[in-house]
Design brief:
Low-confidence stretches: none
Largest sheet: 4 strands, antiparallel
Order of helices and strands: HHEHHEHHHHEHE
Number of helices: 9
Radius of gyration: 20 Å
Helix content: 40-55%
Shape: globular
Strand order of the largest sheet: 1-2-4-3
Structural class: alpha+beta
Length: about 230
């Protein structure tokens, strides 16, 4: 492993607001997406989806939904990163089918059989309230995982893993010599309508990607002093 090469990738990644007209080769983008999907994820359940918006009509609508930001208007590719909360049960079963060893350990098998119940909030969070009370009682005598219980908490669970995949995506783009802009400023209602997303799908961000224009970075990077963030206890 080459730490200096990795450091160069991380330190040279910037939120690029203006791209050139150069396209990203399909093989490069495919590789970046494959690397994105190697990101760590809770229980290996991979709660993400990536929508590469190629249709000219849909791309124009997506640019508008992104408030017509320059990063969206000039990007060679626009990728909508979505967290899914409705595939916990099916992916738990698939994990057991695709287990990478001949035999699934009994504890692992039991774990994936229980996950769908653990992550199901129930109608109007009814299951969530019962589980929260039961687990709180168990927590009086031993450490226990405190959630996710409610629909909002399950969405947060999926969003955290999806955000890790997004970071892999933009670093992979930078390693290939391309750049990106992670945009959270978009009209979620319009994006949902454009992609026909149901309530179980949560758009996390839109990633604009392409070759950095000479004036594509608008200002120097600002980071506050390390002591504000790193604590030793």
């Amino acid at each position: 492993m080459d730490i200096e090469a990795f450091r160069k990738v991380v330190t040279s990644r910037r939120s690029v607001r203006k791209f050139t007209a150069k396209p990203i080769p399909k093989a490069v983008l495919d590789d970046c997406l494959d690397l994105a999907m190697l990101a760590p994820c809770s229980s290996g359940l991979q709660p993400w989806e990536f929508y590469i918006v190629r249709s000219a009509d849909k791309k124009a609508k997506l640019v508008k939904a992104c408030m017509s930001q320059l990063a969206a208007k000039t990007a060679a590719e626009l990728i909508v990163c979505v967290a899914r909360t409705d595939r916990v049960e099916s992916f738990s079963k698939q994990m057991l089918r695709d287990w990478p060893m001949p035999d699934v350990p009994p504890l692992v098998k039991r774990y994936y059989q229980l996950i769908p119940y653990y992550y199901a909030p129930g109608p109007l969070n009814s299951f969530a309230l019962v589980k929260k009370a039961a687990i709180a009682a168990g927590g009086l005598v031993a450490p226990v995982p405190r959630g996710p219980y409610t629909t909002a908490e399950v969405q947060l669970w999926a969003a955290k893993s999806t955000a890790l995949a997004c970071e892999n995506l933009v670093l992979a783009l930078r390693a290939h010599g391309y750049d990106s802009c992670m945009m959270e400023g978009f009209d979620e209602v319009r994006v949902r309508k454009l992609l026909k997303l149901g309530p179980e799908a949560l758009p996390i961000m839109v990633v604009g990607a392409g070759e950095r224009a000479d004036d594509g970075v608008f200002w120097p990077q600002v980071r506050f002093e390390r002591a504000l963030f790193v604590k030793e206890v």
